[in-house]
Amino acid sequence: MTDDLQRLAAILDVIAKRPQPLRHDAELQVAMRVCVEQGLDRLPLPAGGQTLQRWQALASVAGHDLALAKLYESHTDAIAILHELDSEHLLTDGLWAVWAADPPYARLNVGLDAEGVARLQGRKAWCSGAAQIDSALITAWDEQNQPRLVAVNLHQRQVAISDQGWQAVGMATTASVEVQFDQAQATLVGGCDSYLSRPGFWHGGAGIAACWYGAAAALGQALKAHCAKRTEDPHAQAHLGAVDATLCSAAGALRDGAQWIDQHPRQDAQWVVRRVRAQVEQAADEVLQRVGRALGATPYCRDPHFARLAADLPVFMRQSHAERDLAELGRQVASADHLTWQL
Q1: What is the pLDDT averaged over residues 292-319?
Q2: Half-sphere exposure in the Cβ direction for 70 (13 Å, CA)
Q3: Is this structure's pTM higher than 0.85?
Q4: Could you write out the DSSP letters of every residue in 126-194?
Q5: How many Å separate Cα 82 from the centre of its chain?
């Protein structure tokens, strides 16, 4: 996997040297296709003994460009889900995504037609990268009002990708828009509630935190480079010291979480992952604040890589549910009699 990470870094370096890298949908799609064509989307599967290496790859892409990381993480997550649900035969060429948001205003239904073919009807919101991908794993509701997971090819006339539902400046090119399905053909994946009930659901949630970490670490590198040149800036150095401490803490949480998942591949990882996500989110928030205070306006205005990461990361991190997630973690902690925080 070390060789794959080096190849991935080399490809990202080439992409980064293009004029105005990844500023438009087309460039983002090309970058993803390069990763897929080079086989760099076939990461170690979660809970297979190399979970940390998987997260290292996600962090590496995120440190380059979070819009690319959004597509890369979703594509690799789709591959992992199909494997976990014994449905790898459904994996076709092209770019994949996972769309699992189910807001009440955009409900997608799935039913069987007279020939027994699954058909999708309705609207799906928060479809990240819809303009760039070819196929998706999507959550929908069946005729018994049970949650189902389906695989669907987006290149059919019964699928209409809109430009609605996305006004963000950060993560702009991922375009998490709304998609309309009008009796689009699909394939059922797994059984009822397979998407949420499988152990890999929480493994994937920690992979998102690895992306947060990768972007935060890249911002920290900008501060480190500044302090190496401006040795007479004690305030920036103090911020760098705090950034080092918080990033090291978050990295330790990710390493410990990956080890626990590899040692307990079939166990419920919810508590472990909620804790890891909280630690990484807190670290990324602190890095954003401290790097900005230390460096001032210059990198936001004159460094395109820094500016994109600084704009994209707060939007990407809102995949967390903030205090709601912390409250659920607290509920689990309060009911755990064996937890004492002893060293």
Answers
A1: 94
A2: 30
A3: yes
A4: EETTTTT-SEEEEEEE-TTS-EEEEEEES-STTEEE-S-S---STTGGG--EEEEEEEEEEEEESSTTH
A5: 17
